[in-house]
Amino acid sequence: MLAQAVAAIALGLLAASGLAKLVDPEPTTGAMRSARLPASNLATYALGTVEVLLAVASLAVGGMAVLGAAALYAGFTVFTFAATRKRIPVQSCGCFGRDDTPPSPVHVLFNLAATTSLLALAPLGGDPIDWSLPGLQLALYLGFTAIGVYVSYLMLSSLPQLLHLSSTS
């Protein structure tokens, strides 16, 4: 059940991240360029589209789409680890369409937890949400998942900056 909850939160965040890339591709394109990866707004739009489609498919029907989402998160884990370890001058990872969300160890740990939870669901049929739950239980699960997505967003976008500020004080 824990893997399901973490996976559902990770997929909600994946959808939000994909939508942010579709609205403003520049932060992600810039991050890819800084990391010396092939970079263009078209590639960022494609990545954002894949993120949204895999997140929605994973949440709606599970199955193989969950493995695709796990592969994306594995790639994000490698990127954020490399960016933090090699100190690649990336002002933003581009996750949320913001210029001030640099990759951090918090990102690495979140991406690793997301990858692991999504992979853990694969042998179970890959269903991050049990749509057969009775109405109130499903509503509560979805509500707490939405809260988890928002808290995760805050953790990834604000916590690294707060930790940096506290270490410089």
Order of helices and strands: HHHHHH
Tally of separate helices: 6
Please give the number of β-strands: 0
Taking the alpha carbons of the first and last residues, their distance comes to: 40 Å
Number of domains: 1
- Class from secondary-structure proportions: mainly alpha
Helix content: over 70%
Overall shape: globular
Major sheet details:
none
What is the CA-based Rg, rounded?
16 Å
Percent of sequence in beta strands: under 5%
Could you please describe the fold and organization of this structure?
There is one protein chain. The protein has 169 residues and is mainly alpha-helical. The chain has one domain (2-168). It is built from 6 helices and no strands. It has helices at residues 2-23, 26-34, 41-61, 64-85, 105-121, 135-168. The longest helix is centred in the C-terminal third of the chain and has 34 residues, at 135-168. It is globular. 38% of the residues are buried.
Question: Layout of SSEs?
Answer:
Layout: H1 2-23, H2 26-34, H3 41-61, H4 64-85, H5 105-121, H6 135-168
Helix pairs in contact: 1-3, 1-5, 1-6, 3-4, 4-5, 5-6
Q: How would you describe this structure in keywords?
A:
mainly alpha
